Amino acid sequence: MPTGRTSSKLLFIVLPFIFFFAFAPPAFSQEVPPQDVVFLVDSSESMTAYLPAIVGILHRFAGGASEGDSFTCYQFSKNPVMISTGTVRQPSDIKNLQAQLLQLRGTGSGTNFSPALEKGLTEIRKSYRRAHRNDRLLVLITDGRGPENPSTEKITLTSLKTKFSDLEVGLNYHFVCFYMGDIVEADLQSFLNSVGARVVHWPKDKRWLQQATLADVRVVEEEKNIGGVPEIPAHTIFTLSFFPRRPPDRLEMIEMDIEDIVGGKTVDRLFDIRPYRIMCQSKPWSETFHLESRGFARGDYGGRFFFYPSDPQLLMVNPFSIPFRFSVSESLKVFLSQPIHFGPVELEGIYKETRDLYILPMWQEFPDKLEAVRVEADIALPEGLRLNVLPVHQPREIVVYLTLSREEDAPPLTEGEYEGKIRFSSPTGWTFDRRELPIMVSVREKPLNLKLIAFYVAGGAGALILAAVAVLSLSGVRQSAYDYLTKKADPAGKLILLKDPTRGLATDINISRAAKKSKIKSVVIGTGEGIDVEISHISLVDKRYILTGTRSDDVVQTFLQASPPGTQVIINEMALSGRVPLNHLDRVKIGAFEFRYEQPMPLRQVVLHYLSGEVKQGWLLDWDITAEGFSFLLRERAAQPIKSYARFHELKAVTFVRDFDGDVSRNLLSLKPPRTGHLAQIVFADDEELTGYVFEWKQPADKFYIFPKSKGENILFLLVERHTLKGFRLLKENRSGARRAKKHFTQLMKTLTEKFGTKENVT
User: Which H, E and C letters describe 183-202, residue by residue?
Assistant: First the structure.
């Protein structure tokens, strides 16, 4: 960052938060040091019945050791005895360690913690002095002391902390106590708390212990430097790497929480942060996170990330926490008038086209030299195409010219869509509101002369058009054509009551349900005889409101007409006469009553299930599962629904429904979602189970669609957040069915996304 600049303070509220970003885990490329593990196993009389199962746990844990790892195990009652130790240099070393563990057996009454912990901490200290870069893990397994008096131990637990004060949990080693019981002895609990050990309770259940396998995942970074963050509201991406030394044998999650420190003071009161779930992988992986910041003044900031296993009885995560830091500095704004899209470029011939973008000051200051800003293109183009990036420094702005060119003598291009990034950086410390922008180059063959084709088609079709006009001039034929294009249908939708002069006697009107009872494809609202929906009120005496419908392209259009003739219909505060079409969310007055009309929109009606347990209903305004979230109209009892925004990471699932109240009419059954594919059962973290069809089961995406098998006709499908699951089981594989279903669903979603003008990623 340039020096000698005046500092400024922002008066905004600080509101940073971090959430899981819906990207596939990037490649892992960091090295992890060897691990030195020391187990202390209580072998007193009360533990004897469980020791065979514990031998199995240790046997499996030792089997996961890698080259360079060391493994040591002590059993203890009154005094500790080493039963297994060694360093893994070849596969036979692991077998030797596992064979040594068979010596573990009961050693009589009495339990003294101090001698055993002294041995364990001595081994940890030796490891630290021998190879300080190694990871170290101390594990204590016990069911407690029992009736023994702690004063019988020659060394107190308090003195142990003083003796090994040069060792610090989280810095030199990690410490976990698996306690088989409910209440930990006061002196042991005090010692474990004072040194920073984690205490996890195991059940006294031999069957559970026999099936238990300890997993061990390491957080690779010991400290995370997020780097520079713009002074303005911005989004910053960063990654954390994880190394599964012993991968879980089932679906396991890691929950991440955050403790922020700003200017030396905690700022918990200034923002709301939730733990975020990370799915454990079987191989080393990196997780991408998204930092949203706003309201920070310039300066340096820091805090700590905390990691909690979803099932601490079977999963250990080390380290428990790591510090993070970032800095806030002067920001520059990247301005782009339109997306960077070149083409279509023909396969042969000369081509040259230029796009420009601007780098502008966000506040007062601006780089005085072009060298302070670096703009680079990252895109793989076919041979013969060249992209030139030319930044030009001007007063208070930098104009970046992007020129794509092709020389006449260049070889023919390869047809395709080429995508890449324009990246922004600064060697002197400036930050940008956007670090990168997408760029696309389209290379295609020369298009057909559509004007010429249209001329010949128009000439040939002219005679047919004249003949059709003559035939359709007959009234009977005109009516037949109209009936063919727009068929009479039951009216559909709902009238949601907004204003009720009877104060509770009137209710919402389900038009579709009322139409089922009518035999003439209409619904009559009013008071007296011949009424389908009766509303008793003086404002409807001698008046009738008739709802009818027509179908066109599988869409039902509902109309409202008042009777007797001359009676007007008031829609959105406008008085209208005749047969008036109703549009979605129109405000309709019927007498002294006011309603909101809701049109059936099966592919846009969603029920949002939040991780907090909250459930919301609404209509989609956009939909792209590769985005951070989506906009929707929140369905509430108000004249106009409120536009809202939902982030995917806050959701458990999104359910697409035909009808919010589950009342499925014939009009809504024309939409046919797939009901085939791989049959699978998923289990959410709250133990809710769902069986349905999926496109992929071996490597489910971070978000995937599932089509319920037995939830009735109302639920079309669900979008599920993978990180909210704790179980995924394949019941029946069906590759051909999955391919057909995916093709069908792609076409189905195309009708939805075309309305939004966005591209949906079905997979």
Answer: CCCHHHHHHHHHHCCEEEEE
pLDDT at 1 over 70: no
Q: What is the pLDDT of residues 663-677, one digit of tens each?
A: 776 666 667 888 889
pLDDT at 244: 94
Per residue in 249-292, pLDDT tens? 888 999 888 776 554 443 433 334 455 788 899 999 988 887 77
**Residue that the structure tokens 């063959």 belong to:** 445
What is the model's pTM? Answer: 0.49
Distance between CA atoms of residues 678 and 497, nearest Å: 43
Query: Would 35-213 and 332-444 be classified into the same CATH topology?
Result: no
**Separation between Cα atoms, residue 415 and residue 566, nearest integer Å:** 64
Which residues on adjacent β-strands are paired with residue 655? 607, 718
Between 519 and 502, the higher pLDDT residue: 502
Neighbours of 130 (CB within 10 A): 10
The DSSP element (H or E) to which 472 belongs, if any, is helix 450-472
CA 535, CA 502: separation in Å to the nearest integer? 10
CA distance 92 to 449: 74
Percentages helix, strand, coil for the chain (3-state, rounded to 5) are 20, 40, 40
Q: Where are the domains of the chain?
A: 17-28+220-327, 35-213, 332-444, 450-483, 487-598, 605-756
- CATH 2.60.40.3450, domain 332-444, yes or no: yes
Long-range pairs for 302-306: beta carbons < 8 A, 24 or more residues apart: 302/261, 302/326, 303/258, 303/259, 303/260, 303/261, 303/262, 304/258, 304/259, 304/261, 305/224, 305/240, 305/256, 305/257, 305/258, 306/256, 306/257, 306/258, 306/259
Contacts of 177 (CB under 8 A, 6+ apart): 139, 140, 141, 142, 184, 192, 197, 198, 199, 200
Distance CA 270, CA 200 (A): 32
CATH topology of domain 487-598: Tumour Suppressor Smad4 (2.60.200)
- Give the per-residue pLDDT at 760: 40
Which residue, 720, 722, 729, is CA-closest to 698?
Answer: 729
Architecture of the CATH domain 35-213: 3-Layer(aba) Sandwich (3.40)
HEC string for 232-269: CCEEEEEEEEEEEEECCCCCCEEEEEEEEEECCEECHH
Residue type, 306: F
- Class assignment of domain 17-28+220-327? mainly beta
Per-residue DSSP letter, 538: G
- Which element (helix H / strand E) includes 61? helix 51-63
Q: Is residue 650 within 8 Å of 719, Cβ to Cβ?
A: no
Cα(64)–Cα(216) distance, integer angstroms: 9
DSSP label at 531?
A: -
